[in-house]
Amino acid sequence: MSSDDNNSTIKPSEESSNTVENSEQPSSSTSESKEMINIIVKTSKEREQFQLTNDASVKDLRQMVSERYKVEPHKICLIFSGKILKDGDTLENHSK
């Protein structure tokens, strides 16, 4: 079992824990200096990549994860670098 397997679990009837990785990529398609961030959400069973702008909120990511995994947003716990992400924060706050 790798250390990645210990980072997150999904429990259908309880809170879901998802580990978030991030890799920024400049976007040349916008005139406003917004960058796209690729977010990799790891669960105990799989990885899924999401792409958002760097000014997107954690709440935006939580909603996308909720739709993808069909789990209510309030049951999802997003963790990045060992810290629980708060809905009011932007992804840019955590990308540095």
Automatic annotation (TrEMBL):
Region (Disordered) residue spans: 1-36
An annotated GO cellular component: cytosol
Biased composition, class Low complexity, residue ranges: 15-31
Biased composition (Polar residues): 1-11
Gene Ontology molecular function terms on file: polyubiquitin modification-dependent protein binding
Domain of life the protein comes from: Eukaryota
Pfam families in UniProt: ubiquitin
UniProt cross-references to PANTHER family, sorted A to Z: FI07626P-RELATED, UBIQUILIN
Name this polypeptide is given: Ubiquitin-like domain-containing protein
Organism: Euroglyphus maynei
